[in-house]
Amino acid sequence: YREQCPDSEVLGIDVSPETNALAVEKGWATAALAPDDPAFEQYVRSGCELVVIATPIAAVDEYFERLSAWDYRGIVTDTASTKAHVLAAAEQLLPYPHNFVPGHPMAGSEVNGIEGARADLFKGAHWILCPDENTAAEHFQLLHEIVTGIGARVISLSREEHDEAVAVVSHVPHIIASSLVELASRHADDQQALFRLAAGGFKDSTRIAAGSPKLWSGIAFDNAEALGRGLDEIREIIGRFAHALETGDRETMIALLSAAADARRALPAAWVPSTEKLLEVRIPMEDRKGVVAEATTIASQAGCNIQSIEIDHITEDSAVLSLVLTDEGDVGQLSAHLIQAGFSVSFSPLSPKEHTHVD
Ligand SMILES: NC(=O)c1ccc[n+]([C@@H]2O[C@H](COP(=O)([O-])OP(=O)(O)OC[C@H]3O[C@@H](n4cnc5c(N)ncnc54)[C@H](O)[C@@H]3O)[C@@H](O)[C@H]2O)c1
Ligand SMILES: O=C(O)C(=O)C[C@]1(C(=O)O)C=C[C@@H](O)C=C1
Predict the structure, then answer these.
(1) pLDDT value at 184 more than 60
(2) Where is the Prephenate/arogenate dehydrogenase domain (predicted)?
(3) CB contact at 8 A, 101 and 131
(4) How far is the centre of ligand 1, averaged over its atoms, from the C-alpha of 113 (Å)?
């Protein structure tokens, strides 16, 4: 972020003095302190615009409590992999819970701590934001700007759907990766000879198993229900492979493998923004709460990518939300769903030049 905005001030807070020293040395933070340093409170009380809580889930409450004690009125976001606990804690502990916009970058590393940090970690990645009907459009706009500024793409997801969705694409895969390593470990001898045979396939599908057990145990228990359902389902899926094998059913085996191969091949390696053809969607915001959450979630569901957000204040109590979309997703579906939700929307093509001018 500081590469994008070298004039910005970023105060890092970490329990590890080595981490704080390295963060400043690398230029990722302008200053970095221990949580109990009085300068932390001073900084939060003196106009800090945004707080990003990127600790393990177990430490989040402590920071919500501090922000409450310091009557912090700015925007708060987080990076936690699960939202069940964080949402309940925000509601209970934060003085202004509507200023909390949950976030979750869908990128990371199995390397624990600051050693795993890279300036380009989020380039081409998706970053979930979970605004709700109480989220101010300006708060979402600022977070959107920061996240897209570091090269990620924002996906708006409802708070209710978040944990269920990430259980399937992140938490079940982690348990499976750990299970694959456990299987091989059981068969490896003292010299670990079997692991020397492990090539790309094993390594590709188990990299994440090297992640922090403490962090992942926190994630697993915070998302126990959805993870439990996902594990039941994966048992059933593995059972279908096993059954095809037992019954010599080659046709089913081919069908199961083909369906997975097609779906996997269709996954892009990374998201590349396409900004040749831009489309502006203008949505009047008067007399309605939560327009930004509703409209951006509908856009994400339709696979549309919002490149930037503007809020045009027409009069004191009326404004228009303007979303600039890149040439992706199903605009027909977006339009139909926005109209179905009761919005009176207008679409107009925009050239990248015009957009630069608007900015
Ligand atoms: N690892 C990933 O790939 C990944 C991806 C997306 C989101 N997340 C989420 O982001 C959060 C951080 O994960 P991570 O992988 O960066 O963890 P990490 O263990 O690599 O880093 C956590 C940092 O928090 C510090 N810390 C721990 N307790 C603290 C406290 N009480 N006060 C201040 N600092 C404290 C640690 O010293 C460390 O520097 C977690 O909630 C995790 O679920 C992780
Ligand atoms: O790529 C990795 O190493 C990750 O661990 C990233 C990963 C994942 O893909 O499951 C891990 C945890 C998150 O909450 C989000 C992303």
Answers:
(1) yes
(2) 1-275
(3) yes
(4) 7
